[in-house]
């Protein structure tokens, strides 16, 4: 498999991520109702979600859920295991407002990280009902996503 040069634009391919949950009902309420991710296929042991165009699969595995270690990043204790999406700044602000209105407990409150630096970004961290950490972020200039 060849990798396109960073100078050439390439179509973004959806990723697939499978992760453990303690309750499929709670996963449906959180990912489906709160985050607005449409449900795809499912079984009594798993459910697919359209996670902003990506395939997210919640697998019933209560013994594998929960928060793990953290690393310090720009003054915050960032959960090592986490996933999320890079949104537009408008969508990030709308989601932050929606989550605050819903009473979401943030691990890391919505704020701007790396202010004035090449990696300046809006970020927020929170847990799903099963203890999986999520990060949503946004850049004023998305071309700075991988800038050094």
UniProtKB/TrEMBL annotation:
<dbReference type="Pfam" id="PF00903">
    <property type="entry name" value="Glyoxalase"/>
</dbReference>
<dbReference type="InterPro" id="IPR037523">
    <property type="entry name" value="VOC_core"/>
</dbReference>
<protein>
    <recommendedName>
        <fullName>VOC domain-containing protein</fullName>
    </recommendedName>
</protein>
<dbReference type="InterPro" id="IPR004360">
    <property type="entry name" value="Glyas_Fos-R_dOase_dom"/>
</dbReference>
<feature type="domain" description="VOC">
    <location>
        <begin position="13"/>
        <end position="139"/>
    </location>
</feature>
<dbReference type="InterPro" id="IPR029068">
    <property type="entry name" value="Glyas_Bleomycin-R_OHBP_Dase"/>
</dbReference>
